[in-house]
TrEMBL record:
Superkingdom of origin: Bacteria
PROSITE patterns: RIESKE
Residue span(s) of domain Rieske: 4-100
Organism: Microbacterium binotii
Protein name, as recorded: Non-heme iron oxygenase ferredoxin subunit
Signal sequence region: none
Keywords: 2Fe-2S, Iron, Iron-sulfur, Metal-binding
């Protein structure tokens, strides 16, 4: 699959997460304080909770349910109770379009 447009860059609010879906796969898209756009899997690995309902802190997205903060760069939770990472997706910006290829993950070990 190729990259799919998920939203306009101008629709993103800084330090807020936006839930998008590509073919039923939920993702959280975040414009961080440095103007970088990230996309990670939207489902917390500790429970069936949407991470985009959580809180952006620097380059992390914190699950509101029990407080695990996931790195927007590596997908890894930085604290318990979650211990499994979420996928990190490659984001491309073309003009005002935010594109994600759900087949391309870039998790770092
Ligand atoms: S459901 Fe996310 S930390 Fe528990």
């Amino acid at each position: 699959m190729s990259a799919t447009r998920v939203c306009a860059l101008s629709e993103l609010q800084q330090d807020e997460a936006r839930r998008v879906e590509i073919d039923g796969v939920p993702m959280a898209v975040v414009l961080d304080g440095n103007g970088e756009v990230h996309a990670i899997g939207d489902t917390c690995t500790h429970g069936d909770i949407s991470l985009s309902d959580g809180f952006v802190e620097g380059d992390t997205l914190e699950c509101w349910a029990h407080g695990s903060a996931f790195s927007l760069r590596t997908g890894k939770p930085l604290n318990l109770p979650a211990y499994e990472p979420v996928p990190v997706y490659e984001v491309t910006i073309e003009g005002d379009d935010v594109l994600i290829d759900p087949a391309v993950t870039k998790n770092v070990d």
